[in-house]
Amino acid sequence: MTHFSNDPSITAQVANLVLQERRHSLSPREWKHRLAGYGYALRDTAHGHVVTTLPHGIEVCTIPAAAE
After folding, report:
1. In the chain, how many domains are there?
2. 2 found inside a domain
3. Is residue 3 part of a domain?
4. CA 41, CA 56: separation in Å to the nearest integer?
5. Tens-level pLDDT at each residue, the chain (68 residues)
């Protein structure tokens, strides 16, 4: 998978959206479903969650597990 360099402000906005949706979700499953509605997916890694685009799987940013 290729990681493209993104505009830092856009990356921060996506990370903010992902964390905001996590706060509104009752479960990890609902969180992933809500993000899919925005065109994003989560991939679990040893370093946290990697936010990717749907359907191409381009990495956008990493959300550390501690940030949840």
Report:
1. 1
2. no
3. no
4. 10
5. 455 566 888 888 999 999 999 999 999 999 999 999 999 999 988 888 999 999 999 999 998 776 66
Site of tokens 């993104």: 6
Sole residue written with tokens 């550390």: 64
Q: Give 4-64 as a 3 state SS string.
A: CCCCHHHHHHHHHHHHHHHHHCCCHHHHHHHHHHCCEEEEEECCEEEEEECCCCCEEEEEC
Provide the pLDDT for residue 67: 64
Cβ contacts of residue 19 below 8 Å, gap of 6+?
A: 63, 67, 68
**Residue 31 counted as domain residue:** yes
